[in-house]
Specification:
The chain is mainly α. The chain contains five helices and no strands. The chain is elongated.
Length: 107
Amino acid sequence: MIMAATIFLGMTGMASLSMAMEKHHEQIWGNTRLTVQRAWAMRAAGWLLLFASAALAVRMQGATMGLTLWVMEVSFASVCVGLLLSYAPRLLPWLAASGLLAAWLAA
């Protein structure tokens, strides 16, 4: 169950990092401009969530196996976020919110 939490945290982190990019922000939110403060906040949240998922994986599996599994899970999460950005970009904020809820429930 804890490994599911790392997948959800990684997916939410990747979603937050992608929403911090001007192009993807426009895809998701329409004509709303991305302010510098919002971009920095989304980047910080994304990196914090990725760090939290890595720390959780290392804590549960040890350094070598935990980081290996974390890299695989973040790769899977980035593919999922990329596909969602390609086919249904407006669902990405909902994915991020549900990913945080699912990570909290799984942990």
